[in-house]
Design brief:
mainly beta, 2 domains, Immunoglobulin-like, Ig_V-set, SLAM family member 9-like, 3 helices, Ig-like_dom, four-stranded antiparallel beta sheet
Length: 236
């Protein structure tokens, strides 16, 4: 049986290991949109005269800012990591909280705050702004059922360079299928075979916790009914 780390174990653990344990009070998960700002709160209302604070970007094991009240010294290292944090860090002299402005996906990861001998960590997730998904025909021909005049068309809904999103097909308000991606920035595609009927309303939706983008399917443009002698399916 795996034991939960005790308070004496925490000082020996790095922030990413602390967060991965899932111990309540140590994994502070924060999600923001790209281009916005976020404040990592120290939890202090006012620093004491002998307090020492250090902020680190654990993803690259790099110091970002320090406050030593005993020597009255405040240092912000915003030129580290090829200037990734340049002109983006603001350190509150009273509380020790750290604000990051104009966030990019390069700022996602673990952050560690050490106040004297106590550690606190944050896991920052950055969501990019969503583009509208694209629907295209996925085949050169339609297929007709032998028992009716209904026609079917194969479609593909796609997005590129996305992370932390879900791509879904809907028929009206009913979910038909979906696919999700978390960490990596990749391209996603989701197929669908639809029956050619004007009364059916289909849409492809890309969403994350902050927003969504919807592309409605125009069946008359992408798919055409098939005659007895010719099977056809349109393209974009």
């Amino acid at each position: 049986m795996q034991q939960t780390p005790t308070s004496s174990d925490f000082e020996a653990l790095t922030c990413d290991k602390l967060c991965s344990t899932g111990v309540l009070g140590f994994a502070n998960e924060i999600s923001v949109m790209k281009g916005s700002s976020v404040t990592l709160n120290s939890g202090l209302t006012e620093m004491k005269d002998d307090d020492q604070i250090q902020w680190r970007f654990r993803h690259e094991n790099t110091s970002l800012a320090e406050i030593n009240k005993h020597t009255d010294r405040i240092t912000v290292y915003d030129d580290v990591l090829d200037g990734r944090f340049r002109d983006r860090l603001k350190l509150d002299k009273q509380t020790g909280s750290l604000t990051i402005t104009n966030i990019t996906t390069q700022h996602a990861g673990y952050y560690e705050l050490q106040i004297n001998n106590v550690r606190k960590c944050f896991l920052l997730t950055v969501y990019a702004r969503l583009s509208v998904p694209v629907i295209i025909s996925n085949s050169s021909q339609c297929s007709s059922s032998s028992s009716s005049s209904s026609s079917y068309c194969s479609l593909l809904c796609s997005v590129v360079n996305v992370s932390h999103v879900t791509l879904s097909w809907y028929k009206g308000n009913s979910l038909l299928s979906s696919i999700s991606v978390s960490d990596l920035s990749i391209s996603l595609s989701l197929p669908l075979e639809v029956e050619y009927q004007h009364k059916n309303s289909y849409s492809c939706v890309l969403n994350n916790p902050f927003s969504n983008q919807t592309q409605h399917l125009d069946i008359s443009q992408l798919c055409h009914t098939c005659s007895d002698s010719v099977h056809c399916c349109g393209s974009t």
